[in-house]
Every structure is written in structure tokens, then in C-alpha cells.
Amino acid sequence: MTIPQVIFVVIAAVVLVSAVRVVASRNIVHAALWLILSLFGVAALFAVLEAGFMAVVQVVIYVGAIATLIIFAIMLTRREMREGGLQTHRWWPLPALLAMALFAGLAWLLGSLPGTGATPPALAGDDSVLLLGQALLSPEHYVLPFEVASVLLLAALVGAIVIAGDSRK
Amino acid sequence: MDNAWAVVGIFMIVAIVLPVAALIMARLLGPKKPSPIKQQTYECGVETVGESWVQFKAQYYVYALAFVVFEVEVVFLFPWARAYGQLPFFATLEGALFILILAVGLLYVWRKGALEWQ
Amino acid sequence: MVNLGDFFYTLGMWLQGLLMRAGLSESAARGVFSALVAALLPLLALLTAVPLIWLERKWIARLQDRMGPNRVGPFGLFQVFADMIKIFTKEDITPLGADRIVFALAPVLAVAGVVGLWAVIPFAANAFGVDLNVGVLYLVAVGTLSTLAIMLAGWSANNKYALLGAYRTVAQMISYEVPLVLSLLVPVLLSGSLGLNGIVAAQREVWFVFSAPLAALLFLISSQAEVSRAPFDLLEAESEIVAGFNIEYSGMKFGFFFVGEFLHSFTMGLLGATLFLGGWTGPGVDAYPALGAVYLILKGTFVYFIFVWARATFPRIRIDQMLDFNWKLLTPLGLFLIPLLAVVNRGLSESSLWLRNAALLGANVFLAALVLIILGTRGRSARMRAASAAGPAASRR
After folding, report:
1. Chains with 3 or more CB pairs closer than 8 angstroms to C?
2. What is the pLDDT of residues C316-346, one digit of tens each?
3. CB contact, 8 Å: C152 with chain A?
4. β-bridge mates for residue C127, sequence order
5. The pTM is what?
6. Cross-chain residue pair A36–C147, CB shorter than 8 Å
7. For the residues of B18-36, what is the DSSP string, one character each?
8. Is domain A1-83 classified as CATH 1.20.120.1200?
9. Which value does ipTM take for this structure?
């Protein structure tokens, strides 16, 4: 195995173990912290794949904004942030089986796609952000989703304020 | 080692290991005399009363919400800022429109009084 | 032949030559050299804190008309070492009921969140840790570590005052991150590059502080609020809410928060110099590239002096004033500045350098004047309302 593959496996292991700890942790704040570790791991995977922009955006948005929001939401809604007791349900083997079936299905689906396993095209390297920008802004590419995204963000902001406002008054 | 991020990885690992090493060194160098008084929670010299839990104001959550929305917006703006110079002038206006839509959002939040610190 | 003017390049080449003679291929030698730089630069960053603390204490003291440390060593130069020895040898106390691992992790993350910024700062034309093509966003990403550290510190101490302080500090930090990131967009707009090396190179003729002084001001203000420095340090002032989120921290762990804050402020100074004051550019850098490092440090220290000056001069701002100031002034200002500058810059991209920069400066002045006028009228109407509420006799003044 080459060194990048070893690094990839290590980081992937960190991501998966953290993800399991998120759902299995008894203390909800610990679960949030494991989630943060998992998100950092994903950012590291992006970096290993030389997708620099995605790596930093992952950290900025997921860890910086969303994880903070999640922690605030936990603090807002929880009276008691101590031990939450056993987190597993009595029938837990059934959902586990379902999840594994889903995983197997997805793996088969992705494996049978024509592009899988083939040599990827050459990376854009330093120009990746430029290409992304051009793609986002050109009328023949993604400018409409770009503008719709801003409307979507506006809707999210307004909606959240309406909901939060009602519960305050 | 062609990947610039490998250097970043090493840098961050060192940036974490150095303080940890200093902490370990400090723990070894310092005295170790734990006593119940020292380990008590500090409350201006008075005994702790009640659970260690405070009312979390909903206002903090509103700030975090606004932060998420504007952070996502700015992340979209970085590729725009990089590429607008190489694109027709129309692209600049597209970005301006993007910002102005969200400025309207800020105005809404402002007028709704959601930005007041209670 | 040794060209001392290009010190860093020569040093790098010499080391790589050594490695290649030891049997490594050229790319491997380059790789090992980069790894070496990546390992030593954090150490350099942490060591900078030592003269920095002394410098700040002396400056603050002089601004407050007193001497500052002058007992330990000549001019008090060894004061910081004495403090460090004290902190190193203090007992490590973890409060009862605190989450030990997270409690110890928080100060480490606080330091990592500052030191990580040094990886992308270009000290000279070819002296930098790594030239990331997304350098500016990397700065924001590393900044999230600091915010995280404070949240963890407040929660893990099992102390309601620490938690309360942490909530408020994090609310302040995330609020001020919005204008900070908006101001970071401006050098990207003006230089067309997300990498710090590109931003510095684009300032060879005109520094961005002259093209966009409003953005520089925005950066100065929001970076200080982000770091919780005065006048925004309500949450950790010694006389306030019992020192805030780090109330249970003592010894080395507290030392890290303390050092982290000073270093963060200085690093913001270096970044301000890189983004707006032209970084390592200056007379003579083409002939002697190593001179760039001197220029950057001088400029960074100058910006840092402005921060210290502000700390000594302004009274503390209340948290509601702080958040109002952020969301109702700085953020809208940033949101309007960006498209204005983009339109001017793109519209005049064919014109000469001087015309474009003059137009950009004009746009800044225009926006600043607009803001001042709006503030003026609102202030006047607020005063008149207050005066008429006080009674007809008062409003006749």
C-alpha cells in the first residue's frame, strides 16, 4: 500500500469510529464533540484528495458554523447535560441490518457505475477555485442555482427567525 | 509530498503536540497535592449552590443562526471574488445580486427585533 | 556563491543540497525540507510570544504613564521568563466534576488555532510555510479552532460562571466573524487570488489599505473583537464576571489561553500587514528578497501597536453595544462595500492602475461619508427625542 493509501485508511477509520461514537455516546455533549472530530476527518480526506477548497469550506461551515449551532441547540434544549443512559433500543439488530443492507446496495450501485475505479482526470490544481467560480457564474452553467441558493438562504433565515420569534414571545 | 496539504498536516500535528508536551512537562514539574478545597468549583469564594446549569438564552441561538447563514453566503462569495475578474461584467452583477438578497435578509432580522440583546 | 540578500532561498537550497548528497532524490529532499519548515515554524510562532508579551507590557505601561516591568533584568527583559517559570511550576488543578480530557484539550486547541495561522503567512518572497491556493479561507478555518476551544473550556469546567462566560464569548466571536470574513473578501476581490502570496504580490504598486481603507478598518475592528481584546474584552476582564470562561484554569493551561490571546492579536497584526499593507513588499525587495521579512515584521508590529494603543485608550464596550455595533453597523457596511468595490474594480479593469485605485478610494470615501451621515442623523434624532422627552424647557436649547 502506498503512503497516501495508508493515510486515507487511517483518516477514514477516525471518521467512522467517531461517527459510531456520536450515536453510541451516553453524554450528548460528548456526542457533539465526536461529531466535530468526524467532520474534521472528512475535511482531512478532502485535503488528502487535494480538494483544498472543499476541505477548508468543510471546516468553516460544518465545524465553525453548524457544529456551533448544534452545540447551542443542545445547550438550549437540555435541562440535564449529564449521562443520558443507555442509548440502544431493544430491537437494535433490526435497524443495524437495515443499515447494512442499505450500505451493500449503495456499494453495489456505485461499483457498477462506469467511472468507478478508472483513473481520475488530471486535477485542476491551483486553478480549481477559479474554475469553480466560473462554473458558478456562467449563464450556461450554474448561475441560476447560485442565485436560487441565496434565495434559499434568505428563506432559511426568515423561517428560523419566525419560528424562534414565536417561541420567545 | 507533492500535496501542499501534507505540509499543513504536519504543521497542525506539531502545533498540537507542542502544547501537549508543554502541559506534560508542567504537570511533571509542578507539585501534586490535591485537596478537596482546591478542587471545589469557584463561585466567588462561596459554597456552590445547586446544579451547574444556567438558563441558555434563546438569543444566543439566533446569533448562531444568523452566523450560519452569512458564513455560507460568504463561502459562496469566495469563488465569485476569484473569478469575477475573468468573466463578463454580468458576473459581477450576479454576485452583487446574491449579496443584496441576503442584505434584505439582514434587514428583516433587524426589523423583527431578533438582533436585540435581551 | 552565497547570496545573503536572498537568505531564505540560499538556506533552503543549501539544506536540500545536504539532503541530496545524503542520498535523497530531489523531490524527496524538497519534501523533507518542507516538513522541517512545517515542524519548526510552530515553534517559532510560540517563541515569538516571549518578546511580544514584554513589548506589550512596556507599551501599555508607557501609554498609561507608568514604567512597566523594569526589575527583572535590564529594562525588565527577563520578566516574561520569570513568569514562564512560575507558570510551568504551578500545580495542575482540575476541578471536581470537570471533564478531564476536554478540560485539558481546550487550551491546546486555543494555541493550535493561533499557531496554525502562521503556516500560510508569507514572510518573504520565498519564505513561507506553505502556499495554499485557498490561503484566506484556511485562515477562517483555523479560526474556528479558537471558537471551539472556548466553548469546550467553558463547558468542561463544571462551573456555571465559566459556562455563562463561554456562551457570551462564543456569541461575540461568531458575531464578529461575519464582518471579519467579509473584510477578508476585499483583498481577494482586489487581487483576484485566494492565496496570500498572490495577495501580497498584487500589492507591489499600491497597498490595499489605500485602495480600500474601509475594508482595512473593518478588518482592524473585527479582528480585535474576534480575539476579545480591548475595547471588546468585557468577557475576560479581571474586574468583570470573574474572568469568564477560563475561571477554573490555572497554571500552564491558563498560560496557554493567555499566550494564545497575545499571539492571536499579534498574528492578526501580521495578517493585517499581509492583506492590506503589502506584506513583504517594500523598497529593495527585488534585489534582496530577505529584506521582505524585515518589512513584514515592522508592518505587523505597527498594526499590533495600533491594537495596543486602542486597548489603552478606549473604555470597554458592553456586550449589547458590541453586538449592536456588529450586526447593525459593521455587517451592513461590509455587505455594501463588497459589491461596490467589485463593480468599481471590474468596471475599470481596463483602465490605468492609478485611475482604478483612485476610483476605489473614492468609493470607500463615499460609503464612509454615507455611513457617517446616517449615523449623524440618527444620533441627532435620538438626541432630539431624548430632549423632548425631558420636557419642553430642555428642548428649547
Report:
1. A, B
2. 888 888 888 899 999 999 999 999 999 998 8
3. yes
4. C124
5. 0.90
6. no
7. HHHHHHHHHHHHS-----H
8. yes
9. 0.88
